[in-house]
Amino acid sequence: MFIAELEHPEFARFDLSSLRTGIMAGSTCPIEVMKQVIRDMHVSEITIAYGQTEASPVITQTRTEDPIELRVATVGRALPDVEVRIVDIETGAVLPPGKQGELCSRGYLVMKGYYKMPEETARAIDADGWLHTGDLAVMDENGYCKITGRIKNMIIRGGENIYPREIEEFLFTHPKISDVQVYGIPDRKYGEQVMVSVILKKGVEMAEDEVRAFCKGRIANYKIPKYVRFVGSFPMTASGKIQKFKLREMAIKELHLGDEETGGE
């Protein structure tokens, strides 16, 4: 929504100087977009909130008095009476500050369970009442969290773990790119390959090789997208969340990656 507003052809004619604060939530916000919102929309006290339907209203939030660095790079710290910890996705052990793992939350805000779905509830909420969000995050020594990706969205290419959010944040710095989504598609040799769907800013053109050239020497070679797809929009849910699984499905169909690539029967 904020990207669409910033790129509206008549954006400059509106006086937004009276804006002061607000909340971003529902989807991750690239750092560059946050900086633009603060600079061009004048909402100097805007905050970022992070949560899930299973933990409403939100789990963490930045504060209006937080330094700008925290408000553009993190989703804040736990709300009052809410517990947050980062755990190892393999062992479940609680991780120290600075280590990436799964964000878990506990408190009044966590749901009692999915309606008439006890097995799914048990997978989401452990015996000690911790909700396993499925989101990857890093927490600093002051409790501020940075969401780094989704466990299910992680790409495994030739044994290397690749987190789409890292590549998305990097590609978002390209002046021609308006929005970007990175995801994995099947590959017989490496298991998965990196693919990116790109929405360009209005009035510009870009070639696939230009995307790869921008990456070369600036991110690890195995993270450079093998496939680049330019699109006009992303498939979204009714609440505005991007459906990466649909992008993956469309790519598999368009690239004819059937049984030969996936190893299926």
Question: Overview of this structure, please?
Answer:
It is a single chain. The protein has 265 residues and is of the alpha+beta class. It folds into 2 domains: 150 residues, Rossmann fold (3-Layer(aba) Sandwich); 104 residues, ANL, C-terminal domain (GMP Synthetase, Chain A, domain 3). Helix content is 22%, strand content 29%. It has 8 helices and 13 strands. The chain has a 4-stranded mixed β-sheet with strand order 1-2-3-4, with no helix packed on it. It has a 4-stranded antiparallel β-sheet with strand order 5-6-7-8. The protein has a 3-stranded mixed β-sheet with strand order 11-12-13. β2 and β3 form a beta hairpin. The radius of gyration is 20 Å and the shape is globular. The C terminus is likely disordered.
Explain briefly what this protein structure is.
The chain is an alpha+beta fold and 265 residues long. The chain has helices at residues 2-6, 31-40, 68-73, 118-124, 164-171, 208-215, 244-254, 259-262, and strands at residues 23-24, 47-52, 55-61, 77-78, 82-87, 100-107, 131-139, 145-150, 155-157, 160-162, 177-187, 191-200, 227-230.
